[in-house]
Amino acid sequence: MLLGLLLAILLAAPPSVQGDEPPEMRADFGYTSRYVFRGVERAGQSAQAGVELSRANFRGGAWTNRPLQSGEARETNLNAVYTWRSSSEFAVEASVAHSWFNDVPGDDVKRSFEAGLTATFAAINGVTPSLAYHHDFRFRADTADVALTRSIPLTRLGTFLELNLFAGWAKGENWRPDLAGSWRRDDYVYWGGEVHLPYRIGPHSTVMPGLHYADAGGRSAVNGPFGLSSGANFWFTLGVNLDF
Fold first, then answer.
1. Structural domains of the chain, count
2. Per-residue model confidence (pLDDT) at position 206
């Protein structure tokens, strides 16, 4: 139902283009009612924070998720991205991310290291498609996904409605690398959609409310990626972005 509504808006709304360059430095602070990663809920209500530096085609930073309830996994990562543009029609991003985890149930995942490539194509009738592939060296996992994004101008409010639909597939040979014994192999699919409404409240600050939905199919709770549930997840976020 929700995904159908998002798809209808995505295809029916007038196209728009945002060509702003990313700020040289950005800090993000927010609250999320659930923390969901690739269709799997990793934690419940959480506080999130991050910082990112941008120079020419390079950007890098740090990010963390801190659950508000004890006994849920905490996560911190360092990440870096390099963007190569052949023209206005095509761009490729190469990324790396090293994540550290604490309080994962069973203490069977302590860290991960992932590298990826994302290809973004020119907008078609206002809809921007992208394809991504990631490989996690600790989970021995491969993930491929596709996304469709669109920004709809809300002229009277002076902002944009940002829409995103995505779907992906992940296969891992060892989702629990710090657990003794045999490897935990599993593969699953995931899909979802999200809506953001960024609103500028000053020269360097933006409020970012968002609604999100994601689901996963075929994931094993024992052998698959760690998480609190395997069913549908609907949640909301509220954040503040500061740029300099």
1. 1
2. 97
